[in-house]
Amino acid sequence: MSTVLVTGASGFIAKHILRELLADGHTVRATVRSDRRRAQVEALFPDADLEFVSLDLTSDEGWDDALVGVDVLMHTASPFPTDPPKDPQDLIRPAVDGTLRALRAARAAGVHRVVLTSTCGAIYKPADHEWSRRKTREDWTETDGPRTTPYEASKTLAEQAAWRFVAEHPEMRLTVVNPGMVFGPAMDEHYGSSLGTVEQLVTGQLPMLPQMNMPVVDVRDVARIHVRAMSDEGAVGQRFPANAGPMSIPEMAGVLRVAYPDAGITNRVAPNWLIRAMSVVMPTMKTASTGLGLNADVDGTDAPRQFGFEYIPSREALLASAASVGAGQPVRSAG
Fold this sequence. Notes:
Layout: E1 3-7, H1 12-23, E2 27-32, H2 35-44, E3 50-54, H3 63-66, E4 72-75, H4 89-108, E5 113-117, H5 150-168, E6 173-179, E7 181-183, H6 196-202, E8 213-218, H7 219-229, E9 239-242, E10 245-248, H8 249-259, H9 272-278, H10 283-289, H11 302-307, H12 314-324
Parallel strand pairs: 1-2, 1-4, 2-3, 4-5, 5-6, 6-9, 7-8
Antiparallel strand pairs: 8-10
Helix pairs in contact: 1-7, 4-5, 8-12, 9-10
GO molecular function: oxidoreductase activity, acting on the CH-OH group of donors, NAD or NADP as acceptor
Domain NAD-dependent epimerase/dehydratase: 4-234
Pfam families: Epimerase
């Protein structure tokens, strides 16, 4: 059994990782930014032998001590805003600096095994601007591209910084996990931004549907990949896109309308010109406008082949998210 430091432990993905690690008998040290977030995590694991440390991505304080006695660094922490920031550096600086801060502290403590959470958003907007093709783990999002969001740029730059760090320090053994849009069951009411699209659909906050697609993966599979990667020598030096299969926003709405026929989920698909016009005044549409005409599908077949599992279907992950955000009781035929 290993001692694992999990950063950003109150995050949607991280809480599922904690559950996997604890169930497997590992010793877990969890980082949080505040007492409030610590209380959220403690409420989920009241009987677990779970150690907490307070760390900040923007400060050196506490990092060296936090990694003493650790075998594996599981770095999931990164800013994930609901709306795009006015200054992209508000996301980029803490993402990049925080990743390097964690890696430097790990190396100083003799912690050489690292699993880093990135995103398919670091893959599916490449510099060749071939928007229609399926992307692979060999692709990299263009960080200063006209269609790249600040979040996508922050995650791409942070991952690239991590790979450069381990190239300079070959004793470091890095695996990167690149999830798509992460659906699935929330463990509590603090599920962050990743289930926001589902919540907007089932509550009628999206009056029209943008014609964009996204890679989709269940959070339980994302957690499984992280935990299996840390003891798999074949995963060292690799990045693993996690994608059970892409879904378009109209397709998601269609699945949810069948499951929740009384929710009033719209079937109105917005023309691209209207989404672009709305993006001027609506932050959510600004993000959506960057995905119009983009095939965001990323080949996710490497992870199940490497780690020996089958993805939970994207539709099932979507319905689990809907149940978590309070959509109500689905009709029997929706399953």
